[in-house]
Amino acid sequence: MKILAIGDTADTIFTFKKFAKEVQIHLVAFPRKQDALLTTSEEGIEFFDSLLISKQVKRIKKIKDNFDICLVMTWAAARVAYLAGLNYIMYFTGNDIMTPPFIKKPSESYLDNPLQSLNFFERMFYKKVLDSAAKCVTTTVPYYNNLKKYRKDAVRIDRAWSDTELFNEHIKPINLPKSKFTFLSAQKIGLEKGFDVIWEALRLCKSDFELLQVKWFTERTEEEKKINQKLLESAPPQVKFIPLIKRDKLSNYIMFADAVLGQMRSGIQGSIERDAALCKKPSLCYTDPNMPLIIDDKEIIPPFLPKTRDPRHLAELIDKIVESKEFRESLAKEEHDFVKEIVNHEKTIKEWINVFNDVLKDKTIDRNMQSIKNKIENLIVNLIEKLFYVRKMRKKNIRAWGKVEYERLTK
What we know:
The chain is an alpha/beta fold.
């Protein structure tokens, strides 16, 4: 079974490709900004050589016949697959389904302004992208419930992909000086990850420790940029900011730290918390007890703490981790045993092969569609690019890419 994968989030498809030996996956990723976290090794990955959607679609059309089905992550990837006329499976692992682009002025509860404001035709286009997917797969309670609003046939797979070769208890720690108990926080700074709760909790802590915080941000809007600036300026004294960490070095930092501080907003665990557990490091991550995972048809509440977003309770847990070796080791073991089962590669690929086989029963990689209609949609995309898209990209990304690189990718 040959899978064409487009786009990636948090190394998910890259790790899928690495460990799923039962299928062949060719991953095509988008060009990276110079200031983006290099989360994925570039080995074995093809990168689009242009920022222009029309050229990305052209590349996918050229290679599509070598594959049986297409798997996409991110709306940008789904957009390319749709315009290329493919049958594709959409895989959601984060807020891309909580605030989808076809919703009018989607917003977050912790922000005053909407995340985006697409016009009617843009929203209609992205709804068509979702409706045209052969299957839509997601994970956990909140994402699955939201996806079910738009796709009654939504598939839920709570097992996850983690690189157990890169993240395990035998990795050597990075060689850095350490004078006190050290937490690592490798997640983006922002309200999306609950940094309002984290900052308040740190001010309430009584124990002596240091928090190494990677300096990168969730900045989807101007409002978030202003909030993040305030978070930077009001950082508690325990916080020490460090540069971005490359993915292949993250495990060394985890092993150097005594514990990991994770997200305090969504109520579910992400890749950083799972990676820490695989390294047998205790991790604090807000876990909503009303959001159990479904593993082997059983509901399981993850053992991660805290079970509330109360800063006072988080402060108490931080102090307890610093002061009690017994508590640290007990929590680390529970989290490790839980995550080892969640990321069991043999069981995970079985669930995915069921999805692939279900799609391939009556579909090829080419979607049945009206060629004239598809040509019209592609013409519209080309027009939008020429009139608006390149101008918007230049305004937003010219500093990140660099002028020479930007002009090369859009010529």
